[in-house]
What does this fold into?
Amino acid sequence: MNRFSVAPPPDFDFRATVQSHGWCQLAPFVVQENGRALGWPARIAKKRLVRVEVSQPAGRGGPVEVEIGGTHAGVSKPTRATIEASVRRMLRLDEDLSEFHTLCRAAGPPFDRAATGGFGRLLRSPTLFEDLVKVLATTNTAWSGTRAMVARLVAITDGVAFPTPAEVAALGAARLRSEGRWGYRAGYLAALAERIDSGALDLAAWEEWPGSTEELANEIRDLPGFGPYAVSQVLALLGRYDRIGVDSVFRSFVLRRHFPRARKAPSTRRMLAVYNDWGSWRFLAYWWEVWLEYQSTIARSSSESRPAKK
DNA sequence: TTCCAGGGGTAGA
DNA sequence: TCTACCCATGGA
It folds into this structure.
């Protein structure tokens, strides 16, 4: 049996999750038209890969269908369990967003639509290591550079699936720089992989962190190359939304949306204060506004490019 | 060639 | 804690 389904929470929306941010565009993810399905090569044993594709054919609230390809034999129960765990992590099927959605309904338009649309689940990678690497690849580079760096990393290591920490560590900083073109980030990437591969850093502890966000943030901040922006992004991927990573997207968006008439850009503190009332849900409130603007941009460009009806 | 991106690091106030 | 400043590097 190479196909099974997973019951999601009633408000789960597959497309909204897949297209929640840029992750679906990064290798080795393959996204089907308009986020209908998401595929990736999954490692089920040291040397064994299968192709996994997930979708939600029945739409919001319907079952998530998981199809496993690239193998003639049926997959074993443990393999299926591994893949289901990955799918749950990536789509955040176990995350409770009811408090955020309650706040969204109370806030009125346009936030109420975040609740009805099942917004708030940011797509993750199968592993936290992969998420950390991808966050590092977003620092101080254009989005096109991020995509290229991640694609080259996959190409020069595993070639198909996202590499393990051991594979990245074995490559070393010099080749990550020369072949991966990770620039000055190459040293950070190699150090991260080595710390995990050697057992000095246990990412499993971060997934189930019992302490405060502050403590977890300090742990992440200890990674070379992870400054305030990257720490906040990782926290959001770990389900902690009380901080907003200040980057060029944040600055330009908040200036445009909340300070349209400002002669000079307000301070970072003033920009962040826009979302203070959202407390532990600041990041999702901010990202919902960004997401709405992005969706309207897409809608506008597609209606402009659509030929006029005769 | 210049400019800048989904910044990081550090010093000094 | 905040600001100013320098640094890095590939791609448009």
Observations:
- The two ends of chain A are 49 Å apart (CA to CA).
- Chain A has a mean pLDDT of 90.
- The first helix of chain A runs from residue 14 to 18.
